[in-house]
Amino acid sequence: MRGAEGVPPRRADETARNATCDASRETSRDDAHAARCASRNQRRRATIVLVALGVLVIASTLASLMLGRFPITPAEAGGMLANLVVPVEPFWTAQQETLFFQVRLPRIALALLVGCSLAAAGAAFQGTFQNPLVSPDILGASQGAAFGAAVAILLGLGAFGISAFAFAAAIVTVLLVLLVSSRAKGNHMMVVVLAGVMMSSLLQAAVSYTKLIADPTDQLAAITYWLMGSLTGAKPADLAMAAAPMAAGLLILFALRWRINILTMGDDEASTMGVNAQRVRIVVIFAATLVTAASVAVTGMIGWVGLVIPHFARMVIGCDYRKLLPASMLMGASFLLIVDDVARLATTSEIPIGILTAFIGAPFFLYLITRKKQL
Questions:
Q1: In the chain, N or C terminus with fewer CB closer than 10 Å?
Q2: 24 CB contacts (<8 Å, ≥6 apart)?
Q3: Rounded distance between C-alpha atoms, residue 302 and residue 111, angstroms
């Protein structure tokens, strides 16, 4: 039998099937092309954002070198920096040179390093624990450093001793948290967080006790001011002490940024991709703790940077840790540097930087927990 147009039914069916397959293949090709274009656009946008953040870091650094109660012109700053490489006839005063290299430059470098480290640690912890409201002090590193610094002040140690005690106490605190969580049963990540919260509460009580027994004429004020966080009095020695652990931790986090992407999918998904989630998580926690401890040891407690900055970075570059982590580093560096400029220039008496970061971070935290879109 033939159809109305004289075409056999079997041939008509084959023609229809072929046409359907051709249309399906064409649709698949269109979808694949659209996906490639979207991926290409995302990569281009991420590159533009990272370049813009890098330019912001450079611009804020150059501006900070010249800002202060004793202004230094761009020519003088450039001349002093160039004099390190090639001999330049000085057209600046000896006082300006001392101020530039012994006070302003170490402070700016430390602000960049600390901001970069806290933001990177916050982003890494948020991905590792799959919780967008986690901050670098979730495991008690900050409170441990605070207790170590308070004990060092009670013992009458100098600036280096205080920083060393704070760093060691922060590391020991996190090791204790991991030891306790390894002996507990249940969800491992939940147990780690709970152990960190409990340890932080215990150390906070210990810090309160040190303030109670401190000499109110000098020790109490020193402890209180340290707890506020500040870059005042940053010295080349502080920079030298903190730079090595910060650099080591940041390099580890940067190298593992694609594995943090896998951790956000869960342990089962990581296992199917051949990644030992438990081992990677321990390494990430160690690196993030290292940079957090080094940061808090030399600046005191500066909160909110590790919580707020990764969210700002997600808003502009997305959740891919291959781009999110470097974006958080750059944004954290420029953010803390700009806030420090405000802290030292806004009033005649310098504002502790921890107060300013709290003024910015707390309202943003309220926005995060009240916005309609899920975190």
A1: N
A2: none
A3: 11
Helix, strand and coil content of the chain, in percent to the nearest 5, comes to 75, 0, 25
In terms of Cα–Cα distance, which of 139, 144, 212 is closest to 177? 139
Below-70 pLDDT ranges, the chain = 1-39, 186, 372-375
Per-residue H/E/C for 231-259: CCCCCHHHHHHHHHHHHHHHHHHHHCHHH
Are 302 and 250 in contact, with CB atoms under 8 Å apart? no
Identify the pLDDT of residue 84. Answer: 85
CATH number belonging to the domain at 106-370, selected among 2.60.40.10, 3.30.365.10, 1.10.3470.10, 3.40.50.2300: 1.10.3470.10
The pLDDT of residue 1: 47
Question: Rounded distance, CA 65 to CA 341, Å?
Answer: 10
Residue 265: per-residue pLDDT = 80
To the nearest 10 degrees (0 to 180), the angle between helices 321-345 and 305-317 is: 130
- What values do phi and psi take at 63, rounded to 5? -65, -40
